[in-house]
Amino acid sequence: MSDRSLYDLPRWVLAIGPVVILLAVFAVLFLTSPFGNLDAVDEASTLEILWMLTIIGSIAGIIPVAIGMLWFPFIRDLDPRYLHAFLAMAAGVLAFIAVEMTEDMIFDYGVNVENTAVAAAAAIVGIGGTFAVMYAASKWRQRKMADTERSGLEIAYLVALALGLHSIGEGLAIGVAYIDENPTLLMLLVLAFVMHNVLEGPTVVAAVARDRETPMLRHFAAMGVIAGGPVILGGWIGSLAHSYLLAVLFFAIAIGAILQVLIEVAELIRFDAEAVLTRVNAATFAGGFVLMFLLEDVLTDVLLEGWLIPV
What we know:
single chain; 13 helices; mainly alpha; 0% strand
């Protein structure tokens, strides 16, 4: 199917299509339970473990991001006012991730580091250093731009990078669950990450939708790998060297990146509109935050206390 014929599909198909695909993937994972037997992990070679975690990481990270990107044709034709609202929703998603990662960094990892001062220093350096480097790079890029138009593709790559850094934390959890031979927890994590990572797709492409020209397919593929691929890297790290201090540093880097990207998204909206904070933008920002809360925390609790993990 050509790009043009894709745009010619009915609007309701463009809106509902990714949801149908997501539900199909979710159903296949739940019904087949592909991670049901991890008894052979102890006897597996390091290469075999890394390969299996590559497959699991692709399912939990890259595939849902790619599914979310399928909303691009629907987002592309939105009125500028609603496109700004979609960007605000993407910012809400990022804000929730930053808040959640701060909580995880402190209470799940930081408190378990033997030297709390070192953990605090790693967090401060990770957040502050990443924010400063990305902010300086952003200002340099703006000065070097020949025209005054901001590139949504550049912002989309920054969003993908921030989400990718966050995805390392997801991979750490997957890697630890795999090495601990806990198939139920592993399945729970994969299902939860699939459900909420699908929102990372439209979060990435929302900035591109306001550009006049549609990027080449290779850009979408690259951004999908950047945003979801680090789940694989995190899984490798979690299986080979489970370090609380390393987790704190990775989480801090991701938080710093997200804070900078939030500024970039706000400036992107301001470039096209007089005001960033409107009623619609505020509502969709809150909606993105709440939706991620429902998918990440509420869904996980339901699965944990429900049929997947016996109480």
